[in-house]
UniProtKB/TrEMBL annotation:
Annotated GO biological process: L-arginine catabolic process; putrescine biosynthetic process from arginine; spermidine biosynthetic process
InterPro entries for the chain: Arg_decrbxlase (IPR002985), PLP-binding_barrel (IPR029066)
UniProt source species: human gut metagenome
Alphabetical UniProt keywords: Pyridoxal phosphate
Co-factor requirement: pyridoxal 5'-phosphate
Protein name: Orn/DAP/Arg decarboxylase 2
Molecular function via GO: arginine decarboxylase activity
Length: 228
């Protein structure tokens, strides 16, 4: 009977991997002896290997650059780090060393944006992509960013009523994104706005709510592919 943790690892992952090695029956992570850390700090123990963050960001940039060159794409690629993946300051500061932008998912995340700005890690020219369901506090915080001069803050709308909230709260010109439920059946009985605006409603929504409003400029389309 296989009932050891190593059995679970071997059946779930390709092991060993580049980051891990086993020496004298003890696990090492990037040549760091994990048993020594466990003896010092105990368990459970979470380790963040900061160099890997920059490596993965630059790997993504290279992959997109290669793909864009193959199809002669004339646009640019902007990597956005999603703050919900880790709120720790040391993680965000490492990520921001790579000339990237940010994506938020909640009202709390906007406080992180302000803290990064106050500490000089970012300036007001960075793209701040605001995804996620917009509860009142989140809308208020997004509006605060835009009204304070973060001109590349882009709230991504995932339901048709949301834009009215920004029209009331924002006093500056504002870039807008639209989340499109690209695979959503328009007459689906249990349709929810989390997936975005129905694709057959997009053009009319743009013409009536964005094109005619001098405050808003459509900057981004977010295609939501529902694979779940």
């Amino acid at each position: 009977m296989k009932d050891k943790y190593i059995d679970l690892i071997e059946q779930s992952f390709d092991f060993p991997q580049d980051e891990f090695s086993v020496e004298d029956n003890e696990l090492h992570f990037h040549d760091i002896p994990l048993m020594e850390l466990i003896k010092q700090y105990g368990t459970p123990l979470k380790i963040t290997y900061l160099p890997k963050i920059s490596q993965q960001i630059n790997r993504a940039k290279r992959m997109f650059n290669v793909a864009m060159a193959k199809v002669d794409y004339k646009g640019s690629y902007n990597y956005c780090y999603c703050t919900k993946s880790s709120h720790f300051s040391f993680v965000l500061e490492e990520a921001m060393k790579n000339d990237i932008h940010l994506e938020t998912s909640s009202a709390y995340d906007i406080h992180i944006i302000n803290a990064l700005y106050d500490s000089g890690v970012i300036d007001k020219d960075r793209y701040i992509i605001c995804n996620g369901f917009k509860r009142p506090q989140y809308v208020e915080n997004i509006a605060q960013l835009i009204n304070d001069g973060f001109e590349n803050t882009i709230p991504v709308i995932d339901n048709k009523e949301e834009i009215d909230l920004y029209d009331d709260a924002i006093t500056q010109k504002c870039k807008i994104g639209i989340r499109i439920a690209s695979e959503e059946e328009p007459k689906f009985e249990f349709y929810t706005s989390r997936l975005g605006i129905r694709y057959n409603d997009i053009i009319n929504f743009y013409k009536t709510k964005i094109q005619k409003n001098k405050k808003f400029k459509l900057k981004m389309l977010h295609f939501f592919i529902n694979t779940g």
